[in-house]
Amino acid sequence: MFKNNFKIAFRNLKRNKLYSFINISGLAMGIAAFLLILEYVSFEKSVNGFHKNISSIYRLLNENTKGQTWPQVEPGWAQKAKESFAEIKDYCRFEEGVGQGIVQRSDKKDATFREVNMGYAEGNFFQFFSFNVLKGNAAEFKKPNVVFLSEAGAKKYFANENPVGKSLVLFNQFGKATYSVEGVFSIPANSDIRYDLVFSLETLKNPANLNDNGWARLDNLSSQYINTYFLLSDGADYKKTEQKLISLRNELKKDKDGIVFRLQPFANVHLPASFSDNYQTTGNLKYVYILGIIALLILAIAWFNYINLSTANSLKRASEVGVRKVVGATQQSLVFQFLGESLLVNCIGFVMALVLVQLIQPLFNDIIGKELSLRSLINNPVWIMGLGLLLLGSLVSGAYTAFSLSNFKPVETLKGKLNKSAKGATLRKSLVVFQFSISIALLLATALIYRQLNYMQNQNLGVNTEQLVIIRGPEVGRDSTYSQRRTAFWNDITQQSFIKDYSLSGTIPGNGYNFATSGFTQPGSKKGDELKSYSFAIIDSRYLNTYQIPLKAGRNFTEAETGVEWNDNSKVMLNEKAIEELGFASAEDALRTKIQWDERQLEVIGVVKNYHHTSLQRAIDPIIFYPQNNSAYFSLRLSTNKLQNSIAKLETIYKRYFTDNPFEYYFADENFNRQYITEQQYSRLFTTASIWAIIIACLGLFGLATYTVETRTKEIGVRKVLGASVFTITQLLSKDFLKLVCIAIVIASPIAWYVRT
Amino acid sequence: MIKITGLEKYYRTEEVETIALNKLTIDVKEGEFVAVMGPSGCGKSTLLNILGLLDDPDGGSFVFNGIEVAGFNERKRADLRKKNIGFVFQSFNLIDELTVFENVELPLIYNNVKATDRKKRVEEVLDNLKIMHRRNHYPQQLSGGQQQRVAVARAVVNNPKLILADEPTGNLDSSNGNEVMQLLTELNEKGTTIVMVTHSEHDARYSHRIIRMLDGHAVTENILI
Ligand SMILES: Nc1ncnc2c1ncn2[C@@H]1O[C@H](COP(=O)(O)OP(=O)(O)OP(=O)(O)O)[C@@H](O)[C@H]1O
Ligand SMILES: [Mg+2]
Fold it and tell me: Which residues line ligand 1 (CB under 6 A)?
């Protein structure tokens, strides 16, 4: 029986080549899209899951009065908390920002790189977290001046040599220090912690190694710069611990800043447990859900094709059903036959989908910026769910077809009296409308996302980032001759005819702020105003000119003012938003009044017009501009012609004064738009997905159309004989389908609108 | 073997109700060869479908082999049908995707006959009907006469007690038609009961008895032997 059924199923596929092609390729495309998105979803769900103690680990967060959270906390809390609360078994601190600098092989100067994926971490880092130490001994990391490298980091500096026992020199704000390489570890792709080099935090415990950066002391309770993770004992109620931590903070923190501690389960650091959980995460649950839904919709479109085409084709199968019933087939045996057929088609579709996935995987990876493969599915339970879903879908779509086909009365089918057009036509039409509604809604939603993205990228930021080249300031060779060399460098640079403007600053638009802090008041402040947070941007006297940011009132910094020591300076500029936050009635009002920053008094010498220092998705922050000759960023506005020549010239000059520093440059506008990289990736992904959905739906529509033409050949023939032109016939045939697509558009537009808002 | 009394069948469409069978009463004995004749639309096919348990009567009684079958459910009818009845249609009704062999084999499959026995039986029947050499062909590769012979082969492969034939020669030329009639006669001689609908007086003469129908009931019966 089975053999016979499969035989006939195969022969049917072979005979109706067009139907089979449309059916199978539609299914293959649908399943392929589903698998790719499943890869992504299961990857997102698996992030950080490899840490053995993940269920007992919690991340310490700060939460301000506006409900915003961030993981950079003061380094002193960890030890105090462990001493005070028995359920805190251990802690691990690591930082991902303040330590960044330039790393150099001590024995080979050409291996010098500016590092971003680096930081200092606690000595127990390799016991606390579950990274495999491939070479060396994890215990060595507890010592000062030790560095461990990821496989990529090891390759970068030591190629195929064994790095253990070699040494690296790190140049950063903590000065120049030599570190001995004592280990190589691996980082799984699904890890949020992504170090290429991790330096022992133990080094910074010695205040002598801080290069006068007292703010960074590891026991301090005032500078928020380090991530802190706690390991709680089994069965501990972390919400209770959280309350204890809040009390501890209130008790020990002298200047009140309105911030409370939160504990976030490590398992929720990448994706929150639910949408109501608004703690900062590294992933985006909303996108994961949207993509999951898109995957299901695409799959549904493919299955609707299957239902549509096979029920449309049922006229051809009807007489077979009749004959089989006449010679003794029961409805049950026919249901099994057609279910078998649908499983067969789905299986072929599945196999083709696997091939298709292999083919488009690189493209997909390129779009989402990840290295995914089908293999990443196998290690995840999501995969079983996906497979179950596939099976269920093929059964349901097959079952519908099977029951509708096996229901034919032999008497009717054998006489050819089957009512040709009516059977299932309404269902087919509704499915087509549904398919196109989905596809068009997806497409419209994508178009809206695109428009918004476009708007963000082309919106006037209030700052001119075009033709601006950014060079990272030097870290190597910051000795007694440094400031002299820097002056010489700028003298040389300003001689160049292609330089129109230049500036030195601690931050640039698109790269965030130097830090944020509270404690600002003015005589008219209300109680609680001191809890408001302000962002600091360290700039020189040329920053506003270079970035073409207008002043609203007052004056800019002078060159002399940018040279004043940090603690001796009493002059700042504020943006309009900061004026507003401080409660000043007008800019002039602010210029007349001294403001208080804890114990210090500051004079507002200028008010800067609001501009977007960060992404347009964020409201403009209150900014305090602080004058310093900080050389983290060199911004240079170049004249438009011969850009490459100008940059080559810049490099020569840079290398002349700052030997051994890598010369790295980028354009300020591109850098600013990098903030939208996730949105860009998702909008590309959504576009691809909706085009994919439309192709599948069109494939099905094409199948239905050829079917209609086939069943109406006789009618068409008669009409032609009677004098109908090809045009009128085409019109006649396409009218029905156009009507359906129009209905779909009408349905889809409000859906798309709703989805976007 | 067949005893029909007061059989009724209506077809209801939106506006009109057609009476296809109107209090029809007929008897067919075991081993008989009966021809049913009458003008188009008088209910011949409807009768045959009810006899073949493909359709349900709306009234009256139908006793098949001593069992009242009017009111049997679909499953019971299918069971009775596949064990006792073979069909031959005017338009052959072979399955295009199956070969001659496979078409003939189908009833045996649904009767759960073992594969080795099936092969033996199918080959025997194909041999008898002289289409063995065509066993691996598909229906479209055969002439009309050959196709109808395959259909007859399929109808008899199961050794049914009753063969129902609805205008079996309707689509055939006279020589092919005669051949099929010859086949049916031979089957009847071996003991199979046959009820055949036909428009041809010539074909009807192969039977023992002609039932003439008009507007859903039998009007006359001609006994030929
Ligand atoms: N499915 C149906 N729906 C409605 N009316 C039907 C249906 N089948 C048959 N009829 C009607 O029932 C009557 C008998 O039909 P039937 O097919 O039995 O005639 P017939 O004697 O076989 O005719 P022919 O010699 O043309 O084959 C006819 O009037 C026909 O129109
Ligand atoms: Mg008829």
Answer: A 417; B 11, 13, 18, 20, 40-46
Cα(A427) to centroid(ligand 1), Å: 29
pLDDT tens readout for residues A495-504: 988 899 999 9
Residues 6+ apart with CB under 8 A from A579: A586, A587, A590, A607
ipTM of this predicted complex? 0.87
B174 vs chain A: nearest CA distance in angstroms? 23
- Candidates B88, B93, B98, B104: best to mutate against A (most CBs of A within 10 A) is B93
Residue in B16, B18, B21 to alter for ligand 1 test, most ligand atoms within 8 A of Cβ: B18
CA distances for A517 relative to A56, A84, B197, angstroms: 32, 27, 100
Strands A57-63 and A227-232, bridge-based pairing:
antiparallel
Q: Report DSSP letters for A571-640, one per residue.
A: EEEEEHHHHHHHT-SSHHHHHHSEEEETTEEEEEEEEEPP--SS-TTSPPPPEEEEE----SEEEEEEPS
CA A694 – CA A209 distance, rounded (Å): 61
d(C-alpha A243, C-alpha A620), whole Å: 32
B120-to-A185, A647, B110, B127, B158 alpha-carbon distances in Å = 71, 89, 16, 11, 12
From the CA of B49, give the closest atom in ligand 1: 18
How far does A324 lie from chain B, in Å, by closest CA? 8
A411:B82 CB<8 A = no
| Residue-wise pLDDT tens digits, A213-254 | 888 999 999 889 999 999 999 989 999 999 999 999 999 987
Instruction: Enter the tokens of residue A708.
Output: 């209609």
Q: Judge whether A325 and B78 are in contact, CB under 8 Å.
A: yes
Rg of chain B over Cα atoms, rounded to whole angstroms, equals: 17
What span, in angstroms and rounded, lies between the C-alpha atoms of A411 and B197?
Answer: 15
The helix or strand, by DSSP H or E, that contains position A679, with its residue range, turns out to be helix A677-711
Task: Tell me, yes or no, if B45 comes closer than 8 A to chain A by beta carbon.
Answer: yes
Q: For residue B49, which residues of chain A lie inside 8 Å, CB to CB? A: 411
Interchain CB contact of B99 with A (< 8 Å): no
3 state DSSP class of A757: coil
- Taking CA–CA distances from A317, the nearest residue in chain B reads B95
Q: Nearest-CA neighbor of B47 among B208, B224, B197?
A: B197
d(CA A502, CA A485): 17
- Please state, in angstroms and rounded to a whole number, the distance separating the CA atoms of residues B89 and B169: 9
Is the Cβ of B64 closer than 8 Å to some Cβ of chain A? no
User: Scanning the structure block, which residue is given the tokens 């479209």?
Assistant: B140
Per the structure block, which two tokens stand in for A122?
């606690």
**Nearest CB to B82 within list A328, A410, A416:** A328
Which amino acid, A159?
A
How many C-beta atoms lie closer than 10 Å to residue A435's C-beta?
A: 27
Residues of A in contact with B109 (CB under 8 A): 1, 4
The atom of ligand 1 lying closest to the CA of B216 is 14
Give the rounded percent of residues in chain A with a pLDDT score beyond 90: 45
Cβ A683 vs Cβ A457: under 8 Å = no
Residue A572: exposure state from Cβ atoms within 10 A (0-12, 13-18, ≥19) = buried
Q: Which residues of chain B have pLDDT under 50?
A: none
The minimum CA-CA distance between A10 and chain B, rounded to whole Å, is: 9
- CB distance B101 to B126 below 8 Å: yes
Give chain A positions within 8 Å (CB) of B107: 327-328
Q: Is the pLDDT of residue A373 over 90?
A: no
Q: Which of B13, B16, B22, B42 to mutate to test the pocket of ligand 1 (most atoms within 8 A of CB)?
A: B42
Q: Give the tokens for residue A134.
A: 């491939």
Is the Cβ pair A324, B110 closer than 8 Å? yes
Q: Are B204 and B37 in contact, with CB atoms under 8 Å apart?
A: yes
